[in-house]
Amino acid sequence: MLRASCCLSLVILATLTGAAERPTGRLAYLKDGAAWVQALGSRTVRLPASEGAVWVSMSPTDGTCLYTQPAAEDTMTVVVSRPPYAVAKPLLPAKGSYGQPVWTANGLRAYLAAGDAALAYEPALDQAILVAAAPLTLSADGEQAAWRTDKAIRLRNTGTGAERDLFGIGRPEALFASLRSARYPKRLADLTKSIDADLWHDASNWQLTSPALMPDGKRLFFATNAGTSAGAAGNCTWCLFAADTADGKLAPLSGVGAQYGRVPHWLAVSPDSRYLAYLDSYHDSALSNPCGLHLTDLLTQADRELLWAGHDTEKEACVSDEACWSPDSRFVAVSVAWYEPRKLIEAEATEIPAGLFNLLVYDVATGRAVLTVPGGRQPSWGK
């Protein structure tokens, strides 16, 4: 209650004095078929040789950017450019299908999945090395790494190399027990009443998100439908869970409760450890898959949605592909396209036009959008 009162006071004070939080640092994104870096409050630079880039990713500390160049046979080459972004050079001579990097908080490494292999790029040495796996999430010190397999959330100590499943769908009894002993069981009733051994024994009935580690590495968050099955388009009843990385103990975020739709396709803990942000969606039709951007306070489990303020849920829909936190935890950037499904159907469209996407930056304290980058997509934020 005290924390909430303090935050409210800060918002009121900013309103009365006319002051407003302004995003700082550098924001990288895709726009008009290329990669860009915007120094917030200053200039915007198009990254060299970035035409056709599939993704761009920025170091959280020094502005180093990794991005892709198209290569033959639907492959790509990863290139690197550093401030002031006058030149770019190939990071790797080999072509491949490289996934978007995950950086350590100190910017000393970026991990990339490369098909069946994994690489780590070290800016200080300007080299890439083979590693055992490319994590989807890291602790701030880089010692804890986690990723999702088809059947488990897997944890790795990068120092010792020790690996283990923090949760696996083959042995879900501890997860079911945590649901039954939840602090707010009524908020989970839609999920718990649907748990059935005939369902969860079938791996195809499980929906499991990518994990999100706390900066201190002590807890990990993920969402699942607990093996209760899903519709053909992915809609299901699901819940957020926290896992203790030391002992594997699971606890549902029962204050948030059970939700219905697709499980989140992106989730990340804020650098200051206070919030869990996630993007979820609901399949309504082929051209209507509305998304939501949620912030969950990890102290109170209060959950709020940012995207839909001021929009007509009966007429409009939106789709989002990526989001990211600002390094100071004060803002969330998200790429989103708003549209009317009826108009797309009338135009016989088969996908959402790229021109409808904008990059929005939300102030966490007020929930308001404070910056819009027309046409921006797939944000990555650094200092």
Summarize the topology.
Blueprint: H1 2-17, E1 26-31, E2 34-39, E3 44-46, E4 56-58, E5 65-70, E6 76-81, E7 89-90, E8 102-103, E9 110-114, E10 117-122, E11 127-130, E12 137-138, E13 144-148, E14 152-157, E15 163-168, H2 173-180, H3 189-192, H4 197-200, E16 212-213, E17 219-224, E18 236-244, E19 250-252, E20 259-269, E21 275-281, E22 291-297, E23 303-305, E24 317-325, E25 331-339, H5 341-346, E26 357-363, E27 369-374, E28 377-382
Antiparallel strand pairs: 1-2, 1-28, 2-3, 4-5, 5-6, 6-7, 8-9, 9-10, 10-11, 12-13, 13-14, 14-15, 16-17, 17-18, 18-19, 18-20, 20-21, 21-22, 22-23, 24-25, 25-26, 26-27
Tell me the number of helical segments per DSSP (H or I, 4 or more residues long).
5
Under the CATH scheme, the architecture of the domain at 32-134 is 6 Propeller
Largest sheet: 8 strands, antiparallel
The span between the termini is 32 Å
Label the overall shape: globular
Percent helix range: under 10%
Low-pLDDT segments: 1-19
Q: Strand share of the residues? A: 35-45%
Q: What is the level 1 CATH name of the domain at 32-134?
A: Mainly Beta
Radius of gyration equals: 21 Å
CATH topology name of the domain at 32-134: Neuraminidase
Give the total of beta strands. 28
In terms of structural class, how would the helical and strand content be classed? Answer: mainly beta
Output the CATH homologous superfamily of the domain at 32-134: TolB, C-terminal domain
